[in-house]
């Protein structure tokens, strides 16, 4: 019944208000009658009764506050009052909302990416039960991700008790012909258990059968995108054949739209996992945990089994690591740290924006001291005043959040456009949804409350009584110190961000300045992958390369043409050990790259020949074996000697014809990355290579006398003339070089954008505090000038204040930067996280910005008219 009565009261507010007025009047009249009986005159008796009873409005307010529904009405009153106040101060409202919009918008945009990539679950049934199984070396010459060797996978599959099923997969690219122009497609090679583990079924047809895993018949599953783009969404595609690398495959199914696991696969082919320990592949493996089995339990089972698994020659069991990891780590592991760093950076921007808004609220509260003091004197409780001010700050924050959402809607596509192609996984999951909107609104509400509390407490503090006693004179000490502290915090946060941006930018510039060891300008590359079905012998492959080289050399505008099986900076290569004549041993763990090249390759790529000669057309199958080594090989194995004429072999058990005579030495090149040291290399002429897989993948490099893109169409024509069934992949060598620095460039750009935003907000904060301080101290400045102070003295006073704030902020910021920038160490190249030059430059930049922000307030202070200032209060 109590709640019913309160609801009834809410519906009868006017009637209850009139009743309350009548009750109050009754008590006043009764008090007046008592006073008359005590001997007072009628007029004095009523006046004394009114005085003793107090403020009628305040009594009514306190009576109504006891009703929960009446408090709802008072909140509505606070909202209306706050909206009126914000409308009366459009400048304050616009600046505060815009400042928070920048902070909330940047955070929402980055959170949208983080949510899509890191937080959103994988699009499979019960994805939290999917885990990777890994047993790998902790260190070694090659950096490998989580996974299992084939023989380990088969053993784990046989003994496993923790997983319902396990699966493994690999990826490769194939040439698709017979469906329009020849093209390269990405194919996932998967075991038959792959789709059951994921619990994903084809929308047409069926998945793979266990016997198809063993090669009973070549079959394929098409991705929805490939099915629609290359086969026109043919509903009768099942049972038809497609041609991959010259081999026919029967289509048995089509996967659902949007399914492209792993890593943008266009199609899926069966994978046969062999148990040959001498030729075991290392692949990702994963499974679905049985009900009731936890990740630690599965890890314990793997750890016990790992003790019995065979290990490779030269490996130590203590150097192996057994892990059970969430399947999502396979996709997001490499980018997780970058995204978290970006999220931390935009959090700094938000904190600076909030400090700015807190300063604005402090200034607004100071300007409203007269109003708040009068309301307090009339009986308004401090809690009610604080609630009113918090309502105002929350409205500002929610307005900033709404504007920030609009900025994020535009910012997310811009953010993804800045990212290097293929570096951000799960792009299809990145979009603004209900969770993102809730995050933005919650962020706005929290910032409004948290950063509105201090100004609200300050505005309603004990200084109000002093303010009234002093007839409105300024009481600024504590307020000014608080505003200054907030500006110092802004500068410190901005310096941490700017330090990170400076380090990333310096790292990127140093990386870009690294010489790759060749001249990429005016070089165009064309890559081919010859299918085994058509090019089954080394002779057929070499003939293809020779014809292509000869025709490319006749293209107008071509200065030289070369070919290499693994072009620099393309990611893939073949490397390994070799043997020296006379039984000399190599240094422990010493390995070299083993490119196969054409005679004119070094000239086409601009690789320096330091001594000896390059390959010629006479270095063919019938000639003695020759090799060209890089400078680092010569220095490591024949220091102080001439290596020309020395003999080496790439075979473990060489025959007489397998020995190669060194005929030249070239400069070192950076084969895989600009950040890695140049790789030692042993080059062979492709005419003398006897293994088909060394030659089936080949890149032709064409150096031109003009713009290299002008010969691209002619290069396509050459390939169509030599073999029309080969897809064309043409790229400028400068693009390959730029791709190696694309990710560091993206990181440097993004942190620089956030840092410049933080710098702008800090400058606005410094300007605001100094401008308001000048306005508050106008009378003091007038007195100083009346007593003989020069305008230059007033200017220096304000600028000293600006530099004092900057110095305090820089000092705190440098301490923070020395600690915070260490998280960037993994992303830096040839730069230390504590680089003194960068920190000094950033500190000087912030000091200059602080000085510039103080110039306008200082000039305004210098123009104060003493007579006007003394009449001001």
Summarize the structure.
The protein is 52% helix and 15% strand. The chain has 873 residues and is of the alpha+beta class.
Structural features, described:
By secondary structure, the protein is of the alpha+beta class. The protein has five domains: 65 residues, no CATH class; 185 residues, no CATH class; 200 residues, no CATH class; 161 residues, no CATH class; 195 residues, no CATH class. The protein is built from 27 helices and 25 strands. Strands 16, 18, 19, 20, 21, 22 and 23 form a seven-stranded mixed sheet that branches. Strand 3 and strand 4 form a beta hairpin. Helix 6 packs across helix 15, helix 12 packs antiparallel against helix 17 and helix 13 packs across helix 16. The relative contact order is 0.10. The N terminus is likely disordered.
**Number of strand elements:** 25
Give the helix/strand class. Answer: alpha+beta
Overall geometry comes to elongated
As a whole number of angstroms, the C-alpha radius of gyration is: 38 Å
Number of helices: 27
Overall tally of structural domains: 5
Helical fraction equals: 40-55%
How confident overall, as mean pLDDT?
83
Distance between the termini: 58 Å
Q: Summarize the main sheet.
A: 7 strands, mixed
Which runs of at least 5 residues are low in confidence (pLDDT < 50)? 1-12, 66-70, 470-475
Layout of SSEs?
Blueprint: H1 2-11, H2 13-37, H3 42-53, H4 56-65, H5 68-88, H6 90-119, E1 130-137, E2 148-149, H7 150-159, E3 163-177, E4 183-190, H8 194-198, E5 204-205, H9 210-213, E6 219-222, H10 224-231, E7 241-244, E8 247-254, E9 267-270, E10 282-283, E11 285-289, H11 295-306, E12 320-326, H12 328-367, H13 369-377, H14 382-418, H15 434-459, H16 463-469, H17 477-512, E13 523-529, H18 538-553, E14 558-564, E15 575-576, E16 579-580, E17 592-593, E18 596-597, H19 601-605, E19 609-612, E20 626-630, H20 631-637, E21 647-649, E22 659-666, E23 682-685, E24 697-704, H21 712-722, E25 729-732, H22 733-740, H23 742-776, H24 778-786, H25 791-820, H26 836-862, H27 866-871
Parallel strand pairs: 4-9, 6-8, 18-23, 20-22
Antiparallel strand pairs: 1-11, 1-12, 2-10, 3-4, 3-7, 3-11, 5-8, 6-9, 7-8, 13-24, 13-25, 14-24, 15-17, 16-21, 19-22, 20-23, 21-22
């Amino acid at each position: 019944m109590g709640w019913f009565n309160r609801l009834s009261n809410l519906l009868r507010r006017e009637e209850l208000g009139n009743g309350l007025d009548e009750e109050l009047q009754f008590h006043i009249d009764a008090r007046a009658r008592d006073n008359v009986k005590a001997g007072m005159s009628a007029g004095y008796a009523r006046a004394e009764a009114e005085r003793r009873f107090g403020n009628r409005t305040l009594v009514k307010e306190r009576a109504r506050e006891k009703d929960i529904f009446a408090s709802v009405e008072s909140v509505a009153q606070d909202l209306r009052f706050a909206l009126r106040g914000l409308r009366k101060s459009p400048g304050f409202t616009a600046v505060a909302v815009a400042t928070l919009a920048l902070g909330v918008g940047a955070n929402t945009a980055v959170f949208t990416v983080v949510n899509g990539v890191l937080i959103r679950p994988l699009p499979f049934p019960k994805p939290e039960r999917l885990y990777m199984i890994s047993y790998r070396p902790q260190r070694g010459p090659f950096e490998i991700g989580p996974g299992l060797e084939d023989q380990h996978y088969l053993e784990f599959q046989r003994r496993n008790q923790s997983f319902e099923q396990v699966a493994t997969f690999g990826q490769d690219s194939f040439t698709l012909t017979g469906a329009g122009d020849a093209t390269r497609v990405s194919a996932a090679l998967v075991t038959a258990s792959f789709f059951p583990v994921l619990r994903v079924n084809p929308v047409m047809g069926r998945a793979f059968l266990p016997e198809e895993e063993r090669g009973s018949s070549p079959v394929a599953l098409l991705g929805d995108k490939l099915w629609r783009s290359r086969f026109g969404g043919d509903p009768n595609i099942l049972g038809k054949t497609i041609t991959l690398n010259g081999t026919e495959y029967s289509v048995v199914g089509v996967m659902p739209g949007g399914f492209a696991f792993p890593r943008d696969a266009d199609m899926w082919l069966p994978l046969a996992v062999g148990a040959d320990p001498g030729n075991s592949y290392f692949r990702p493996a994963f499974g679905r945990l049985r009900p009731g089995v936890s990740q630690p339990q599965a890890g314990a089972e793997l750890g016990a089994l790992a003790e019995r698994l065979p290990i490779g020659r030269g490996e130590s069991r203590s150097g192996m690591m057994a892990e059970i990891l969430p399947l999502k780590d396979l996709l997001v592991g490499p980018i997780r740290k970058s995204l978290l760093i970006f999220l931390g950076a935009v959090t700094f921007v938000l904190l600076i924006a909030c400090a700015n808004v807190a300063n604005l609220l402090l200034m607004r509260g100071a300007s409203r001291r007269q109003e708040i003091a009068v309301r307090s004197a009339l009986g308004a409780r401090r809690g009610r005043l604080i609630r009113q001010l918090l309502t105002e700050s929350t409205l500002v924050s929610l307005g900033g959040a709404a504007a920030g959402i609009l900025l994020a809607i535009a910012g997310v596509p811009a953010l993804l456009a800045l990212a290097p192609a293929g570096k951000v996984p799960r792009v299809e999951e990145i979009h603004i949804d209900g969770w993102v909107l809730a995050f933005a609104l919650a962020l706005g509400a929290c910032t409004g409350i948290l950063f509105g509390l201090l100004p609200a407490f300050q505005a309603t503090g004990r200084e109000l009584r002093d303010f009234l006693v002093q007839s409105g004179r300024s009481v600024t000490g504590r307020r000014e110190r608080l505003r200054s502290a907030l500006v110092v915090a802004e500068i410190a946060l901005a310096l941490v961000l700017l330090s990170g941006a400076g380090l990333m930018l310096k790292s990127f510039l140093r990386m870009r300045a690294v010489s790759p060891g060749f001249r990429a300008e005016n070089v165009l590359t064309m890559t081919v992958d010859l299918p085994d079905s058509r090019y089954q012998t080394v002779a057929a492959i070499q003939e293809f390369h020779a014809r292509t080289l000869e025709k490319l050399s006749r293209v107008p505008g071509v200065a030289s043409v070369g070919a290499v099986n693994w072009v620099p900076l393309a990611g893939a290569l073949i490397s390994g050990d070799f043997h020296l004549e006379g039984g000399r041993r190599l240094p422990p763990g010493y390995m070299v790259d083993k490119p196969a090249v054409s005679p004119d390759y070094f000239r086409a790529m601009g690789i320096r020949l330091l001594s000896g000669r390059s390959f010629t057309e006479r270095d063919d199958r019938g000639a003695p074996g020759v090799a060209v080594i890089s400078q680092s090989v010569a220095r490591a194995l024949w220091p102080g000697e001439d290596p020309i004429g020395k003999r080496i072999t790439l075979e473990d058990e060489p025959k007489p014809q397998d020995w190669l005579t060194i005929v030249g030495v070239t400069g070192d090149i950076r084969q895989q990355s600009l950040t890695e040291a140049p790789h030692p290399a042993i080059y062979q002429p492709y005419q003398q290579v006897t293994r088909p897989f060394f030659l089936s993948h080949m890149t032709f490099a064409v150096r031109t006398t003009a713009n290299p893109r002008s010969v691209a169409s002619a290069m396509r024509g050459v390939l169509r003339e030599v073999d029309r069934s080969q897809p064309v992949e043409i790229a400028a060598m400068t693009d390959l070089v730029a791709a190696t620095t694309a990710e560091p460039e993206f990181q440097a750009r993004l942190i620089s954008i956030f840092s410049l935003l933080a710098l702008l907000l800090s400058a606005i904060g410094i300007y605001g505090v100094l401008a308001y301080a000048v306005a508050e101290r106008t009378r003091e400045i007038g007195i100083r000038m009346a007593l003989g102070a020069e305008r230059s003295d007033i200017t220096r006073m304000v600028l000293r204040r600006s530099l004092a704030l900057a110095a305090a902020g820089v000092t705190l910021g440098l301490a923070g930067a020395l600690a915070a920038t260490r998280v960037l160490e993994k992303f830096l190249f040839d730069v230390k996280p504590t680089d003194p030059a960068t920190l000094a430059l950033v500190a000087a930049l912030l000091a200059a910005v602080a000085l510039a922000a103080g110039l306008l307030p200082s000039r305004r202070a210098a123009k104060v008219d003493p007579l006007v200032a003394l009449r001001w209060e």
